[in-house]
Amino acid sequence: MLDPENVSQARIAVLMAALDGEKFLDDQLRSLEAQTVPAIDIWAGDDGSSDGSLLLLKRWQTRWKKGAFHILAGPRKGFSENFRSLMMRSDIDADFFAFCDQDDVWDKDKLEIAVKQLSRNCADQPGLYASRTRIIDASGNQIGLSPLFKRQPSFRNAIVQNIGGGNTMLVNRPAWNIIREGARRTGFVSHDWWSYLLVSGAGGHVIYDPTPKTGYRRHEENLVGDNASIGARMDRLRRLLAGDFAVWNQRNIDSLEKCMDLLDRDSRKLFEEFKSIRQSVAFTALWGLARSGIRRQSLTDNAALFLAGMIGKL
């Protein structure tokens, strides 16, 4: 068992998905180099970059002093499959595992804080740490914060919402064994939502830290924007009404169907209940949601959830 006050004992594997990220990749890697934990192995999956990303990664490979630095060819099937190709690998071994984007900036104590939280709270059980993020612009200036979630993380939440960006996540080895097995069996909507689903569904401990330790960079080229603005909330409502939310839920259901043995009994029961609710509409769906305890984090998001149930878009 690791001493939570002695992070020098911990080896951390950082899984990075890269694609045409030359513009900000150096900033990201410098913030990894500055981490207060001493032992970090980098596993970078380059998904066919056409800019200087691969050359930049190779330069960093020669100067990396904290551990190993592996550069792998991604599957060229999108960011989700790039992460999945890393998650499935049996040769990635560590005490803790982190996901990493190519364009963010990590506070120097980001990994130290996460390691201590997991070591103190769930040393012998599956554990996942995630946190709020600072939103930064292309120049690194803070322009906002991600939503502050206050409801306790749980499978009842995870089945309809992801609360942690992958760039904030750290998981321990028991959790990673579950996540890796799940990735070997099936694809998923996103690596971070999938991790939250599996760890919470397995009865693991999920920690949500309200203090941001990651600068999430919002710029023209990145794939996912912030979700805190009024515009982002309106976009989520539009997608819900268009059926996108239902499509994501169905994909999660299809993936979880292949991983039932990884979930605990209560989560399997809730999963079947959720599938039944999705086949209902109007007040039957409302009653099912109310009775199940399935909830998103905010009042407005729960209103949208119940609306989705009412109109058959769940």
From TrEMBL:
UniProt keyword annotation of Acetylation present: no
GO molecular function: hexosyltransferase activity
Pfam family, one: Glycos_transf_2
Alphabetized UniProt keyword annotations: Transferase
SUPFAM superfamilies in alphabetical order: Nucleotide-diphospho-sugar transferases
Residues in Glycosyltransferase 2-like domain copies: 14-124
Signal peptide: none
Family matches, as PANTHER family: GLYCOSYLTRANSFERASE (PTHR22916), UDP-GLCNAC:BETAGAL BETA-1,3-N-ACETYLGLUCOSAMINYLTRANSFERASE-LIKE PROTEIN 1 (PTHR22916:SF3)
Protein name, per record: Glycosyltransferase family 2 protein
